[in-house]
């Protein structure tokens, strides 16, 4: 399984399917942010990261221009990742609460983290066409992550993307499609989808998402993972 995920990762990081995203990610990597001017930016797609035996999959929107596009690891080096991995650490899913670089020693247990779109988009807004070009990677990841029983979706964009992936995998969301919301649970044959507001600064600064709210989501994700049977 790990070898297959490694092969898929190698394929993802070489992807140049979306000209607009390729141009933007590489422009950002050249121009850099002043605070990181001495660092070498990754400037490529950010693959998934975590435990190949994960029962919990966490899906976000896309890499941050000066976060994963700089560090090369999803949700690493930005404020959203600070919130996410701190919560995962409190839930026992990460060995440390911080994620600052791809070489910082972070390890996930029973969890795997991905973005619906693998390249940093301008204004953090990928198009639907760019999303759809990227989704086959997540379809294949879900096929390889055979133990996944819960998918935590960070925001409505990730919810829509995961819904499409599950449909392509033969386990569509119920119809009519339940509306996204924080804490919403949507069961499918493949996994239960669990809604969570994205840990963006817009949400955390305004109090739309708080640490206790994020902790509740991961506590519930662990409960669901324990309740749902394994295919093994």
For this structure, what is the CATH class?
Alpha Beta
What's the pLDDT, averaged over the residues? 95
Q: Could you give the count of β-strands?
A: 6
What order do the SSEs take from the amino end to the carboxyl end, as H and E? HHEEHHEHEHEEHH
| Tally of helical runs | 8
The named CATH superfamily: Uracil-DNA glycosylase-like domain
Q: What is the CA–CA distance across the termini?
A: 14 Å
Structural notes for this entry:
The protein has 8 helices and 6 strands, in the order H-H-E-E-H-H-E-H-E-H-E-E-H-H. The protein is an alpha/beta fold. The chain has a single domain (2-227), classed as Uracil-DNA Glycosylase, subunit E (3-Layer(aba) Sandwich), CATH 3.40.470.10. A 6-stranded mixed beta sheet has the order 1-3-2-4-6-5, sandwiched between helices. Strand 5 and strand 6 form a beta hairpin. It is globular and about 45 Å long. It starts with a helix and ends in a 5-residue tail after the last helix. The model has no long low-confidence stretch (mean pLDDT 95).
Quick tags:
232 residues, 11% strand, six-stranded mixed β-sheet, 6 strands, Uracil-DNA Glycosylase, subunit E, alpha/beta, single chain
Sequence-ordered SSE layout with sheet pairings:
Elements: H1 2-13, H2 19-31, E1 49-50, E2 56-60, H3 68-71, H4 79-90, E3 111-115, H5 128-144, E4 150-154, H6 156-168, E5 185-187, E6 192-196, H7 201-206, H8 211-227
Parallel strand pairs: 2-3, 2-4, 4-6
Antiparallel strand pairs: 1-3, 5-6
Helix pairs in contact: 1-5, 4-8, 5-6
């Amino acid at each position: 399984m790990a070898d297959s995920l490694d092969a898929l990762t190698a394929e993802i990081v070489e992807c140049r399917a979306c000209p607009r995203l390729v141009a933007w990610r590489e422009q950002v990597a050249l121009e850099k942010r002043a605070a990181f001017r001495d660092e070498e930016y990754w400037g490529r797609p950010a693959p998934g990261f975590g435990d190949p035996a994960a029962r919990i999959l966490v899906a976000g929107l896309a890499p941050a221009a000066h976060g994963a596009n700089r560090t090369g690891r999803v949700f690493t080096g930005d404020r959203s990742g600070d919130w996410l991995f701190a919560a995962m650490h409190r839930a026992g899913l990460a060995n440390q609460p911080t994620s600052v670089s791809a070489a910082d020693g972070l390890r996930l247990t029973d969890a795997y983290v991905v973005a619906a779109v693998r390249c940093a988009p301008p204004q953090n807004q990928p198009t639907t066409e760019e999303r759809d070009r990227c989704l086959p990677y997540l379809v294949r990841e879900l096929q390889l992550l055979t133990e996944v029983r819960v998918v935590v979706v960070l925001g409505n964009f990730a919810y829509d993307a995961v819904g499409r992936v599950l449909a392509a995998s033969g386990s569509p969301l119920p119809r009519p499609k339940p509306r996204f919301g924080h804490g919403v649970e949507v069961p499918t044959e493949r996994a239960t989808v669990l809604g969570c507001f994205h840990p963006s600064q817009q949400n955390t600064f305004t109090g739309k998402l708080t640490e206790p709210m994020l902790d509740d989501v991961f506590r519930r994700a662990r409960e669901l993972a324990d309740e749902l049977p394994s295919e093994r």
